[in-house]
Amino acid sequence: MSGIASNPVAQPPYIRRRSPRPRSEAKRSRIVETAMHHFAENGYHSARVGDIAAALGIAKGSVFQHFGSKDGLFFEVYKRAVRSFSKYLDAPAEVRAAGFFSVLHYWLIRTEHMLQEDWIPYRIALLGNYGTDLTLKREINRFLVAEDPYGTVVFVRFGLERRELRRDMDIEMIVSILDWTMERFQDALLTAELDPGLFRRQGELPEKKEARIQQFLAVLQRAIGAESAAAARSRHELRKLAPATPGSKQKVS
Question: Contact at 8 Å (CB) between 136 and 77?
């Protein structure tokens, strides 16, 4: 998730549009669904509103009537995409019981599965984070802060209640650090599978990827983690949940 947008400029016209009438909701939904596939396949800059309208059998002007512009259409597509993702605390109960950093480990391990299961929304999220102009990126940042679609704030409070996170740091700072680092690291893990060449690193063997995940979590824990018995237990549980190393007899499902 991206950082907080703070520039107090006026919102673009597509943000200030009135809520659609109920009878137009179905049509808007069809347009967004078709546009999601089109943006995912072609990228933001190469996508054409005319092609989206043609696929739907409607006039190009009808798309602009509903969304105001290409930016407005992509913004709605982006919101639908990220709202479809699981929140941090949607992890299994046994993972949540193991603690804050075990939940992070679970989602990092699941990154490749997320790509396989949700390729289109993940591609849209990636385009929103890296492939749009600054004006649209600013509105995406505002949406992420206002709606918190990944449940980051609730998740950080979960870590604070378990005394696994630092209490001498502002909660908004912890949320921002988590958003910035998790988003970038997950994107890097998916380089080979989604956009080879977009990030520096290429695909890696599973054991090397697990080692990188453990190193990332260790750095993050030193940055925002509390030195407490709960944090120590969390580290112990994290090691127990880690996949077996080569040569181990442990079976990984």
Answer: no
